[in-house]
Amino acid sequence: MLISKVWLQATLLTFFIGFAILGYLALRVYEDHPPVPGRVVSETGEVLSTADDIRNGQELFLTYGMMQYGSIYGHGAYLGPDFTADYLHRQAVEMARFYGGGPAAEDRVGRELRANRYDAATDTLIWNEAQVSAFKAICRHYDAEILDREKSGGGGLGPHAVKDPIERRRIVAFMAWTSWTAVARRPGLPHSYTNNWPPESLVGNHLTEEAVVWSVLSIIALLGGTGLLLALFGRYSTVLGWHATDERRLRFRPPAEVALTRGQRSTAWYFAIVALLFLVQTLLGGATAHYHAESGGFFGIDLAKYLPYNLTRTWHLQLGLFFVVASFLAAGIFLVPLIAGREPRAQGKLSFLLLGALVIVVVGSLVGEAASYKGWLQGSARSFVGAQGWEYLDLGRLWQILLIIGLVLWCVILFRGLRGPLKSERVGELPHLFFYSALTIPLFYAVGLAVRSQGDFAVADFWRFWVVHLWVEDFLELFTTIMVAYVFVLLGVVSQKVAVRVIYFDIILYSLGGVVGTMHHLYFSGTPAVHMALGAAFSAAEVIPLTFLTVEAWSFLQIGERQQVDNGAHRFPHRWAVLFLAAVGFWNFLGAGVFGFLINLPVVSYYQIGTHLTANHAHAAMMGVYGMLAIALMVFCLKYLLRPEDFSEKMASFSFWTLNVGLAWMVLVNLFPLGVLQLGDVVTKGYWHARSLEFFEAHTYIEWLRLPGDAIFIAGVVPLVVMTLKAVFRPSKNAPAPAAGERTAPLFTEVTSP
Known about the structure:
There is one protein chain. With about 750 residues, the protein is mostly helical. The protein is about 65% helix and about 5% strand. It has 25 helices and 10 strands. The strands form 4 sheets. Strands 2-1-6-5 form a 4-stranded mixed beta sheet. A hairpin with a 4-residue loop joins strand 5 and strand 6. The two termini are about 25 Å apart.
């Protein structure tokens, strides 16, 4: 190997330790998840709901898109209430009213709700008369205000969203069950199944000892780990950093002189679709945000009647994933011939086959989600071809399976192209790292098949966050690091030895925190307290590699300056791609690191989960890191796919600045300040109130302040659409494509060595 085998051994060891801990936590969540009672009965024997009612209600809640309107256990969308907290508060108020009101009644309500009256021997949960009365009153409230409302005002689910009264009652039965898990004490423990979440003074839900202790220990771990990293970086920066390469002088081949294979030319269609999906995604994002500012309308138009909030948010989120993944697929296909030096036969045909499959999945899933939310599908078809409804796994099971098959086909395309380097290079070198990281993309997305719409919620959420966190935040991040390193190796500005060492260093750092850090999403979803302990301690370490990457991002900016030759045609050709990569480093640190750590501490997450501080982190990290990376890869490839006269430096500059300024405006003017106000409201008035429509209506002015940022951001997408469409309909006239099996020319030639 180019570097010591100790790097590979340390990487495998950290992977083994991380996934061994996750395996233990999987066993614990299967053993200790909240029970779903076979029957919920009154003290007089009236059956109020059954396990089938609760499980069916959960599936209906999901497939009607209610997780993309409000949330459960703090997970979901932000316009509607958190139904766990909202039901719990309304139940406490109704029960106190039933008992005549006053401090004595409130104290009695708290004691009765904290008492766990579930009998495991008979699989029965008993409710007293006050709980039964509250359940029936809350059913009427949700029917009138959300599930079967007359008007579409307020966005929400649209008018008469759930027409069947049996389905409506089952949905409320599911909400009631989540509320019970949030207050009933775990057998033998002083806290509820959700570690006393949500904070609710009426029932005595307060921070647990574990939440405070592990928050303090997490801060210690972060400070100690960051200090150790910076000490190592200062000591070994010349060994680890990108700038550790020799100071070779390079002559870059003009992009128009680089011969493109058929597979590479096919990626022009991918990037055009990426840009169009990105444009639609931003427009839907603007509409979704507007529902917060103008309740029930869009500048006076009753848009919610046709495009309710839950549908626009689902499409916005899904298209965000789709455009990023499509860009990654295209970049992988484009880079492989440059890595291998040749392209096998029929690679272009396979690439177009994958593109067709991707279009089918995108269109089919979006149509299916609309059909499910609007009640056009019934029975098992709702979750199979319609929508499963889990946030980040909204698409129907059929489309999920087809997407996995498409990702596997992509890996086949990569393998065919990389077969030569994989045979000639040692295991653990750059080609192997590139291919193995690509394999993790379908592998960890396929974990989502373990998520079932009628499964135990805590178990399903455990596997769902393997997709949300491990797939999105860890293994896409890993593929990102390797792909960026390979681009710089192909351009000659970084040696393979340095690139491999930096990649291994990043993998080790990510594995130490990111794998087990997945559990920071699951503090309050019904998992045992050990998930909070380990999730908090390890997620603090996630900031450490982001700090390292931010320090290294400054080296990206110097690459072009170091490699100027002849002061003209042979200059470094990828200035804007590098600037987008520098933006990735900035948003990685701020969005994923600072804003992520802000909400990951249990003591903070307890009060803010599901508020705009969560959305603040999500926008800054998802768009700032993966969105900017997708654009960086697009701009890099467009340099070769476009005619020189069609690649506009002004357009690239306009997109770079408007996208970054627009994102910063969204975050700093709207999401972050509103999240801080919500956090204060949770502490003073309760979580249920901070998630209520009343809170948002009191702060409408902040929502309107977001409008300029959205407009600036959307404007930044337009030049990308223009350039990618030119790449499709006015392709570059590069040198003739090499014949199948013939080697392609490198992107640079070395001029001098020091």
